[in-house]
Amino acid sequence: MRTQVAIIGAGPAGLMLGRLLDLAGIDNVILERKSANYVLGRIRAGVLEQGSVDLMTRAQVDRRLQAEGLVHHGTDLSFDGDRLRIDFTDLVGRHVMVYGQTEVTRDLMDARQGQTIYEAEDVSLHDLDGKPWVNWVKDGVTHRLDCDYVAGCDGYHGVSRASVPQSALTTFERVYPFGWLGVLVDKPPVAHELIYAHHERGFALCSQRSMIRSRYYVQVPTDEKVENWSDDRFWDELRRRLNPETAEALETGPSIEKSIAPLRSFVAEPLRFGALFLAGDAAHIVPPTGAKGLNLAMSDVAMLADAFIEFYGERSSVGVELYSARALSRIWKAERFSWWMTSLLHTFPENGPFGRRIQRAEFDYLAGSRVAQQSLAENYTGLPS
Ligand code: FAD
Ligand code: DHB
């Protein structure tokens, strides 16, 4: 088999890249280790920046997003019960859209024209400095795909980054001593907008998927086990971290999903090794506090698709050569913002009383400074690429 671009991974990065290449008439094949249903079953991000919404429009997959997505003009921060609304529209003239990653993935899967091979096991990459090819095993049979380029869109634990010699890669990492325990519930959201709450017992987030489905998170230690959290324990802990009126208004019910995600900041540099390009979580991880993971994956593949379109359309390698530097410039700004939001809102026991006072001062500064609020709003709604 032969294709122009072999895409590893059918998460949002791989599927969006495949869609943009399909629309440009560039042949591509996606190889995904799991089944389509497994990919759709993963509950992850929920907030789309304007740039990601625009990309869905460019990819002609925004019909449901426009009909069902919820426009959010602001968000709430809460610190020990004191509330501060960040009004994105007033501050920077932009907004975000609440639309789940599962829905983005479903829309892209439904629109897919090129070939996607699900349950492709043991994917391996070869001859990345020469004439690249990819191997995989399906139903016990080994297959081979020759290509011009490989796009590594296979997430943090994927084979693409692992195929690069360690000496060719510099990695930067911060692992936080906590994770997020998330619960999905079929109840209306507690508030119209999201609430990011700092409390001495730990961070909490009130998010949503629709007018009748809510997503809530609480900070838990890294080694916490989801089995230790009954629904009742989760709701009690969440209420304790919210201000009394919000806690009172919270509608609870049986969880339809419950999982723990570790928090990590990670960047690999560069993003290109010969014919291999890394994009999305394969290249970088942000802690989820700034809602950037999915959005960064989208902006990476928009740049990568444009580079391939330039290469095949104009026979110019400029975009391909510049992809790594261009994408990394945006990635590091999102890394900074995600680290900053995480530092402001979580409890870091090792930072002691001094650290908490600094967090309080940061919150008070935000509350009193329109300029500081503008900076938050500018980053949260998405920096230009
Ligand atoms: P992924 O979505 O990870 O997709 C990669 C795909 O590659 C997967 O389908 C995987 O099965 C496949 N794959 C892996 N290895 C191979 C292989 N060897 N061969 C073939 N295929 C392979 N972001 C937020 O903004 N907010 C959140 O609340 C949030 N929650 C998260 C919770 C969890 C548990 C995780 C892991 C991430 C979360 N994120 C969140 C981050 C966000 O979901 C990711 O940034 C986003 O999924 C990145 O998309 P991607 O396509 O790059 O990677
Ligand atoms: C959600 C996740 C986030 O990381 C975030 O910052 C906002 C919302 C969510 O899953 O809804």
Automatic annotation (TrEMBL):
Residue ranges of every copy of the FAD-binding domain listed in the record: 2-338
EC number from the UniProt entry: 1.14.13.2
InterPro entries: FAD-bd, FAD/NAD-bd_sf, HB_mOase, RIFMO-like
Gene Ontology biological process terms from the UniProt entry: benzoate catabolic process
Keyword tags: FAD, Flavoprotein, Oxidoreductase
Keyword match rRNA-binding: no
Any GO molecular function: FAD binding
Enzyme class: oxidoreductase
Pfam family, one: FAD_binding_3
Protein name as annotated: 4-hydroxybenzoate 3-monooxygenase
Organism: Devosia ureilytica
UniProt gene name: pobA
